[in-house]
Amino acid sequence: MDINNKAFFCSWSGGKDSCLSLYYAIRQGGIPQKLITMLVENGERSRAHGLSVEVLKRQSEALNIPLDTYATSLKNYEANFIKVLEEAGESGISLGVFGDIDLEEHLHWIKRVCDTAGMGVYHPLWKKTRRKVVDEFIEYGFKAVIISVKENLLGKEFLGREVNKDLINELERIGVDSAGENGEYHTLVTGGPIFANDIEYKLNEEFYSEGYWVRNISV
């Protein structure tokens, strides 16, 4: 797909897959206009990874790309997301960039809601092998830390671990998907080739939420 000179938004989780997708879109000549992140209903944290708005803003500043956040309930998520897409289209954005790798059901959902809103879709990671996605993220010089793990799939001792080849090899040895594509873990990206600076962060207390152990992060 030719995205050269096309204005796009990136569906931003703050984690490695959305970041690598953003990187590819920029490399291929797309023009980033904004990051879009959906928040939980009270507006305090991202719905995807549980990141605070303060952390997301720090990423946005380091990337020099504006951040738009929208709070929504799960019940109204789809309707509100379509409204967000329509507003983006009205501002001149013609394309959404997403970090899906191989989950067909989510791909179909993205395409359906984007079609409804008249928004184009770009999935630069689609059908890459999961290991290749993580390897490329590391090899391009991005930095990330594990901020949540799914109960019964990955132990709390992995919270706060940096994403590197040693970690990925260890995950594969214990039978965990290297990319965490089944929800085994989520990450916070703290630096890389499209960041003006690394993000300094502090690992705080652990807490349990909806099947995940989460490490609270402050910046």
Report the major sheet: 5 strands, parallel
Overall CATH architecture of the largest domain: 3-Layer(aba) Sandwich
Could you tell me the strand content as a percent range? 25-35%
Strand order of the largest sheet: 3-2-1-4-5
Average pLDDT figure: 95
How many alpha or pi helices?
6
Please bin the fraction of helical residues.
Answer: 25-40%
Along the chain, the helix and strand elements come as EHEHEHEHEHEHEEE
End-to-end separation in angstroms reads 37 Å
Global outline: globular
Q: Assign the CATH superfamily of the largest domain.
A: HUPs
What is the number of E strands?
9
CATH topology of the largest domain: Rossmann fold
Overall radius of gyration: 16 Å
Write the layout of secondary structure elements.
Blueprint lengths: L6 E5 L4 H12 L3 E9 L13 H11 L3 E5 L5 H14 L4 E3 L6 H14 L2 E3 L7 H10 L3 E8 L14 H9 L11 E7 L10 E8 L2 E7 L1
Parallel strand pairs: 1-2, 1-4, 2-3, 4-5
Antiparallel strand pairs: 6-7, 6-9, 8-9
Helix pairs in contact: 3-4
